[in-house]
Fold:
Amino acid sequence: VTGANRGIGFGTVVALLKLGAHVIAVSKSIDENEYRQRLSTAGVTSSNCTIIKADLSIAEEVCVVCRIDFYTTILMGKKCKLAAEQALPVDFLVNNAGIALNQPFLTADVESFDMTLRVNLRSCFIISQIIANDMIKRGARNCAIVNVSSQASK
Structure:
């Protein structure tokens, strides 16, 4: 679950943990100890929750979240230094990370626009492509990728 620190993302993590799933919670602004306490307060055990702090606007950190190797990322046109496949296999992906940098169109800066595209679109594309390719490679059944968007993001 990306964007797992608050709102819809946190609620999704709690619901999945209540159903007995092993959840990987990803957020840019996540403190593991505080997050585990919040999960406990929400009535779920955090032992089935892996917490990853990552800024999904940075391609290298998206690669770390997906645990893909350097050569795969070169083929994808990305740069990535770390490799492992700890997160795979993933049966259900919830792309929830998103930002809303509300600026008037006529005065909006390109940096904010680019950041919005990197977080809201590019990271979703990269993560979904990696997870979907693994699902297909495994011949996985009963899997899903869910994309969430909300105007309520802060």
Summary: The helical segments are 7-18, 32-41, 59-66, 70-75, 110-138.
